[in-house]
């Protein structure tokens, strides 16, 4: 079966991708309903898990319906055998979880689940999503502080339920897993059930079908901490909402902690029953805001360091400027750069980054305006925006102004006279002079050239 799965993947993704990411993947064995797949490095594991995890699981299910999960781990490699068969012994893979999984790195994930009689309730937790790896900044500090508090002392008054909300890819799931890891790893062996709202619904429907709703209710109500991710999924699913509402009440009344996430605040979740909405808003409601430039920088620095790859400051700044949508995309871009660097044994450079990420960057492109250029350049050289059009001729303002003119010529389709007008009604010959002067300086001074290049890339359409 494994050979067939590999074959299918190879066909689906093509030879190049297969060789790059999947060739070294081996099957360590099957543990219960989980197929354990190993790869030699943490980096490859992360990559395969996030890019091919779902596909692997689906292919396994087609082959062997007993397998419901696929775990991708760092592990010792066996020589790749072409005709590997499915009778691979379920040997002890002795996987080493990577260091990021602290404080649970000591135990392996499967063992934790197996030891927990109701562990079945919980979806597996991502070992990368811990408090250690969560980078805190202004946009998420409040949510982070609340999550920490709940992890330390579940079911404290005022923090129950904890309702986390925010846009896609901003760290809700990461924070929830971090809370779950922390509580599971803490004293008292608390029983934490984490699941998506979708999974909650499927479980509920399955219980209805098999007429085991009593069991469903009882087992759910026996958890100490219930975490339901992406609650917005329950909008329009009235029966499931109803069931969730009852579970919710029973648990809170019994002094158990509830943590819920959604893409909107309780009051904005239209289509959720009023009484549920009211109860959800009763504890602590914490939002995760869109990332700031500073937070994106810190995240990139942290992730590059964790991957052990040297990424130049200019590249980090460039990415933080360009990829502003969410952390997931930012991470994806960085991972791709790191992968290229690893594969080809080349250092990460600004040029390389632009080439490797051209498709992602294109999606973030927009037309650049002269105002933007002026603003960015003024910011960069720490001068006032008004000095872009002022008459001051001190070098400290004149040079940045020339840089801005140069960039305006390079990046927009404005004519020289037009550019001149936008820089305090200057003559077109002034602009022409600025353009050639900057080009000259760039020739002569590599550091200066790099500076201007960086600005250009940040602004570029
Ligand atoms: P959401 O559930 O809000 O859609 P996720 O929690 O899945 O977002 O986060 C998307 C990705 O971004 C994950 O890989 C996560 O680890 C990463 N991420 C998000 N916020 C942070 C952060 N503050 N520090 C480190 N990684 C983060
Ligand atoms: Mg999520």
UniProtKB/TrEMBL annotation:
Residues covered by region (Domain IV, binds dsDNA): 342-461
Record-listed ATP binding positions: 169, 171-173
What are the protein's GO molecular function terms?
Answer: ATP binding; DNA replication origin binding; lipid binding
CC per GO annotation? cytoplasm; plasma membrane
Chain residue ranges for the region called Domain I, interacts with DnaA modulators: 1-88
The record's listing under Pfam families reads:
Bac_DnaA, Bac_DnaA_C, DnaA_N
Q: Which InterPro entries match?
A: AAA+_ATPase, Chromosome_initiator_DnaA, Chromosome_initiator_DnaA-like, Chromosome_initiator_DnaA_CS, DnaA_C, DnaA_dom, DnaA_N_dom, DnaA_N_sf
Record-annotated AAA+ ATPase domain positions: 158-289
Which cellular compartments is it found in? Cytoplasm
Report the principal subcellular site.
cytoplasm
Specify where the region named Disordered lies, as residue ranges: 73-117
What task does this protein carry out? Plays an essential role in the initiation and regulation of chromosomal replication. ATP-DnaA binds to the origin of replication (oriC) to initiate formation of the DNA replication initiation complex once per cell cycle. Binds the DnaA box (a 9 base pair repeat at the origin) and separates the double-stranded (ds)DNA. Forms a right-handed helical filament on oriC DNA; dsDNA binds to the exterior of the filament while single-stranded (ss)DNA is stabiized in the filament's interior.
Q: What is said about its interaction partners and assembly?
A: Oligomerizes as a right-handed, spiral filament on DNA at oriC.
**Recorded family membership:** Belongs to the DnaA family.
Task: Let me see what the UniProt entry remarks about domains.
Answer: Domain I is involved in oligomerization and binding regulators, domain II is flexibile and of varying length in different bacteria, domain III forms the AAA+ region, while domain IV binds dsDNA.
| PANTHER family xref list | CHROMOSOMAL REPLICATION INITIATOR PROTEIN DNAA
Q: Which named protein is this? A: Chromosomal replication initiator protein DnaA
Source species taxonomy = Bacteria, Pseudomonadati, Pseudomonadota, Alphaproteobacteria, Acetobacterales
């Amino acid at each position: 079966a494994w050979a067939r799965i590999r074959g299918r993947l190879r066909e689906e993704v093509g030879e190049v991708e297969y060789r790059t990411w999947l060739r070294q993947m081996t099957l360590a064995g099957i543990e219960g309903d989980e197929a354990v797949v190993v790869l030699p490095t943490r980096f490859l594991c992360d990559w395969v898990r996030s890019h091919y995890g779902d596909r692997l699981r689906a292919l396994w299910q087609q082959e062997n319906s007993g397998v419901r999960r696929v775990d991708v781990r760092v592990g010792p490699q066996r020589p790749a055998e072409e005709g590997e068969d499915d009778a691979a012994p379920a040997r002890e893979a002795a996987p080493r979880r990577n260091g990021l999984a602290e404080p649970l790195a000591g135990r392996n994930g499967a063992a934790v689940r197996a030891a927990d009689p109701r562990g079945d309730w919980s979806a597996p937790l991502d070992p990368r999503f811990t408090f250690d790896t969560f980078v805190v900044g202004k946009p998420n500090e409040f949510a982070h502080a609340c999550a920490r508090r709940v992890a330390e002392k579940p079911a404290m008054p005022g923090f129950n339920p904890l309702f986390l909300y925010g846009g896609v890819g901003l760290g809700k799931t990461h924070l929830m897993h971090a809370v779950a890891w922390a509580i599971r790893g803490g004293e008292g062996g608390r029983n934490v059930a984490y699941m998506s709202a979708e999974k909650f619904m499927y479980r509920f429907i399955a219980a209805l079908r098999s007429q085991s709703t009593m069991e469903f209710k009882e087992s759910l109500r026996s958890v100490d901490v219930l975490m339901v991710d992406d609650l917005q999924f329950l909008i329009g699913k009235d029966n499931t909402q109803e069931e969730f509402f009852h579970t919710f009440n029973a648990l809170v009344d019994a002094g158990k902690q509830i943590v819920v996430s959604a893409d909107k605040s309780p009051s904005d979740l239209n289509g959720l029953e009023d009484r549920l909405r009211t109860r959800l808003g009763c504890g602590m409601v914490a939002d995760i805001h869109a990332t700031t430039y500073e937070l994106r920088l810190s995240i990139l620095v942290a992730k590059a360091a964790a991957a052990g790859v040297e990424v130049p400051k200019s590249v980090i700044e460039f990415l933080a400027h360009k990829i502003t949508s969410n952390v997931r995309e930012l991470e994806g871009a960085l991972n791709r750069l790191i992968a290229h660097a690893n594969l080809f044994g080349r250092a990460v450079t600004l040029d390389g980054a632009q080439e490797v990420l051209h498709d992602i960057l294109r999606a973030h492109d927009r037309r650049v305006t002269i105002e933007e250029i002026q603003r960015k350049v003024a910011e960069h050289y720490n001068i006032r925006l008004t000095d872009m059009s002022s008459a001051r001729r001190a070098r400290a303002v004149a040079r940045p102004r020339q840089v801005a003119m140069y960039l305006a010529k390079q990046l927009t389709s404005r004519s020289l006279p037009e550019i001149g007008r936008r820089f305090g009604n200057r003559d077109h010959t002034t602009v022409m002079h600025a353009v050639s002067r900057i080009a000259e300086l760039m020739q002569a001074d590599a550091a200066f050239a790099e500076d201007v290049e960086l600005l250009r890339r940040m602004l570029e359409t």
